[in-house]
Amino acid sequence: MPLGFDFPLEKLQTYQGINPRPADFEVYWDQALAEMRATDPQLTITPAEFQAPGVTCSDLYFTGVGGARVHAKLLQPEPARTTPGPAVVFFHGYFGDSGDWLDKLPYADRGFTVAALDCRGQGGLSEDSGGTTGTTVKGHIIRGLSDALEGRPERLMYRQIFLDCAQLAGIVMSLPGVDATRVGATGGSQGGALTVACAALEPRIKRAAPTFPFLSDYQRVWEMDQAKDAYDELREYFRRRDPLHKSEQRVWEALGHIDIQHLAHRVRAEVMWTIGLMDTVCPPSSQYACYNKIQSPK
Fold first, then answer.
1. How many CB atoms lie within 10 A of CB 265?
2. Closest to 75 (Cα-Cα) out of 53, 98, 104, 34
3. Within a 10 A sphere around the Cβ of 95, how many other Cβ atoms?
4. pLDDT digit string, tens, across residues 87-123
5. 4 φ/ψ sector (left φ>0, alpha ψ -120 to 50, else beta)
């Protein structure tokens, strides 16, 4: 790696992160999961406009926390299985969407049930329940941050998105033809972070394959002067709301609620993590902060 960009590999392999872990972290997520489980999903599955031989393609909608209607593409192999089989849940990159049907067909062709989430308020069909039915596309790291600084961290946007991931995984596990002990999750960048969050909040996930995830060790990213690209809204927040950085330490503490490194100890899945050691968008140290805390086989 270029000298001076990030830590040498030997230090990366032991690095534990610097973004603070809130004192109420475990209670925060236990209460969030209780809210999710108390939410009536009002599940609907309808035939999609796109169809392909040997696969049933559907639009799946469920109600997530806060009343948002959340969408996922659902692909199920035909004919319907008499013996339950595996499934995989896909998560997309920041302000994107669930993508095309085509890249998911090979999984369904090999007998997997596939569900690909549209993150609420981003580029897909899921609602943002923050008072609108349209999309905010991005800004979701800092969405709800002002509320969190006033003692309401449950308003953080990524709390709701993380819960959507776990809720979708649970729905997939309950579908006919799915073996709930053979469900995996995968995605890149934001999708990698959501893969970790999903495996942490839905510990029945068997295998997780996050690729260069972000949403980890925000303070480290800031101190590396890498608050750009995926993390640009951190810079914009301070520039527009707190140019003198009077609340900086409180910001890191609030964002600690949605820092995946603090969820890592909850992961029970086998993990295959892909990382680029010259990644300037999701810096290696920010990723290792989470990876090093995973206690399951990896």
1. 12
2. 104
3. 18
4. 999 999 999 999 999 999 999 999 999 999 999 999 9
5. left
The stretch 158-171 carries a mean pLDDT of 98
Q: Are 120 and 68 in contact (CB under 8 A)?
A: yes
SS (H, E, C) 134-157: CCCCCCCCCCCHHHHHCCCHHHCH
pTM score of the predicted model: 0.96
Which residues is 260 bridged to in the sheet? none
What is the DSSP pairing of strand 270-271 with strand 178-188? unpaired
Whether a cis peptide bond, with omega within 30° of 0, leads into 20 is no
Q: Residue 138: its pLDDT value, please?
A: 78
Helix 232-241 to helix 248-255 angle (10° resolution) is 140
Element (H, E) at 57: strand 55-63
Assign 3-class secondary structure to 195-237.
Answer: HHHHHHHCCCCCEEEEECCCCCCHHHHHHCCCCCHHHHHHHHH
d(CA 158, CA 88): 22
pLDDT band at 129, cuts 50/70/90?
confident
